[in-house]
């Protein structure tokens, strides 16, 4: 039976010459300095690669495949400039309203991509459920709003996490306002109106950047809310959102 090694034995043996297990060089530590440096560089490179892979996967979980590769030459010059250069200023948020198919969502993801590259926290949700069909779980604001009341604990937890994340990230895209699920006679349902108003209000108060896209003019968007919320929402939009002509 082997005898236990004492701290004294270890300290006494510390300064004795040893042979590097990689290159055969004699030294007084376990691995020589060149091999130690090489191994450290290899580990750091592996860590960088793993981190880059995780960030690619995170970006792909946020951005639907159709918007990941944008041919900017096919986007209108105004939207191209917004996607490639816009940044928060005195008004920290952005509303892109205009005809369908002109590139509003692509420009918005262009902004998110730039700030994601700067290590800012980002998130994106379709306001309805159009992105839910990708197979990646809940991707729509409407879906999350109603799923938070689900009897299924897993679905309920996923929805609650999505709504919490939407409140906290530095940059949030809400795509296609006007396509919310369960609207009534052109008005938002009470549940959806309260959830959307609360989200926008919380982000405005916190000074976090929200990017809205819609085929609706701002007055038509505001008119879909209950009357008691229209005036404060209109005021907040004017205070916090830049609405360029596109």
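Q: What amino acid sequence fits the structure above?
A:
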């Amino acid at each position: 039976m082997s005898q236990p090694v004492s701290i004294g034995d270890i300290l006494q043996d510390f300064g004795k010459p040893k042979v590097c297990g990689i290159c055969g060089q004699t030294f007084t530590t376990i691995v020589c300095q060149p091999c130690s440096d090489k191994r450290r560089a290899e580990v750091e490179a592996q860590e960088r690669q793993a981190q880059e892979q995780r960030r690619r996967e995170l970006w792909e979980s946020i951005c639907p495949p159709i918007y990941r590769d944008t041919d900017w030459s096919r986007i209108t010059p105004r939207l191209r400039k917004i996607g490639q250069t816009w940044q928060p200023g005195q008004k920290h948020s952005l509303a892109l309203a205009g005809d369908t198919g002109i590139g509003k969502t692509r420009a918005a993801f262009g902004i998110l991509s730039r700030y994601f590259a700067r290590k800012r926290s980002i998130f994106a949700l379709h306001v309805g459920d159009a992105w839910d069909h990708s197979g990646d779980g809940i991707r729509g604001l409407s879906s999350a709003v109603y799923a938070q009341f689900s009897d299924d604990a897993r679905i309920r937890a996923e929805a609650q996490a999505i709504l919490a994340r939407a409140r906290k990230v530095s940059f949030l895209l809400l795509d296609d306002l006007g396509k919310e699920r369960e609207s009534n006679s052109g008005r938002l349902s009470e549940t959806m109106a309260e959830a959307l108003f609360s989200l926008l209000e919380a982000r405005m108060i916190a000074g976090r950047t929200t990017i809205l896209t819609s085929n609706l003019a701002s007055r038509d968007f505001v008119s879909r809310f209950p009357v008691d919320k229209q005036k404060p929402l209109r005021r907040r939009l004017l205070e916090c959102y830049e609405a360029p002509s596109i």
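Q: And what stands out in the fold?
A: Residues 33-62 form the longest helix (30 residues).
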